[in-house]
């Protein structure tokens, strides 16, 4: 395996190589056990956001439509306060607000200029991870320009 560059990529390549040498049943068992998070309160949140984002990457690449699941929308919306500020960390000085069609709204950042993203919680979550999502973004001219110059997500 060829490293893509940077210490994080090299570390990820080494980890993938190690995991690839494990027996398949052991890998499945580790996935069933959930993310190796040391803070039990965050464990379910880490599992949900990781599995959702990567599963949707695969679904959307296969041209599968978004899932109609109010339960999933509710669960992901509960994670927005926990992950939203981190995922918008490069948008310092920009007010970023997310809004669902059902009127839920959460300000993730404050600033002199503003942007507002509207969509279902699943779509907003993907947008926050810098993935394509069915999200409408509005804002003032400077806010939209700043948003275009930063990268959301990890």
Q: Note the gap between the termini.
A: 23 Å
What's the number of structural domains? Answer: 2
Question: What's the gyration radius in Å?
Answer: 17 Å
Instruction: Return the structural class.
Output: alpha+beta
What's the CATH class label of the largest domain?
Answer: Alpha Beta
- Helix count, DSSP H or I runs of 4 or more residues: 6
Strand order of the largest sheet: 2-1-3-4
**Quick one: biggest sheet?**
4 strands, mixed
H/E element sequence: HHHHEEEHEH
Total beta strands? 4
Give the CATH architecture of the largest domain: 2-Layer Sandwich
CATH overall fold name of the largest domain: Nonspecific Lipid-transfer Protein, Chain A
Notable characteristics:
single chain; 154 residues; alpha+beta; Nonspecific Lipid-transfer Protein, Chain A; four-stranded mixed sheet; 53% helix
Summarize the structure.
The protein is an alpha+beta fold and 154 residues long.
Overview of this protein structure:
By secondary structure, the chain is of the alpha+beta class. It folds into two domains: 8-61, no CATH class; 72-149, Nonspecific Lipid-transfer Protein, Chain A (2-Layer Sandwich). The chain has six helices and four strands. Helix 4 (70-87) runs parallel beside helix 5 (121-128). The protein is globular and about 55 Å long.
């Amino acid at each position: 395996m060829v490293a893509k560059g940077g210490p994080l990529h090299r570390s990820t390549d080494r980890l993938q190589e190690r995991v690839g040498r494990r027996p398949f049943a052991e890998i499945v068992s580790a996935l069933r056990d959930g993310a190796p998070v040391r803070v039990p309160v965050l464990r379910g949140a880490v599992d949900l956001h990781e599995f959702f984002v990567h599963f949707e990457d695969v679904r959307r690449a296969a041209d599968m439509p978004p899932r109609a699941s109010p339960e999933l929308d509710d669960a992901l919306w509960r994670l927005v306060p926990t992950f939203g500020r981190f995922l918008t960390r490069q948008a310092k000085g920009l007010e970023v607000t997310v809004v669902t069609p059902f009127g839920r709204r959460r300000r993730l950042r404050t600033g002199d200029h503003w942007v507002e993203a509207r969509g279902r919680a699943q779509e907003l979550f993907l947008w926050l991870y810098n993935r394509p999502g069915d999200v409408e973004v509005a804002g003032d001219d400077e806010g939209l320009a700043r948003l275009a110059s930063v990268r959301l997500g990890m």
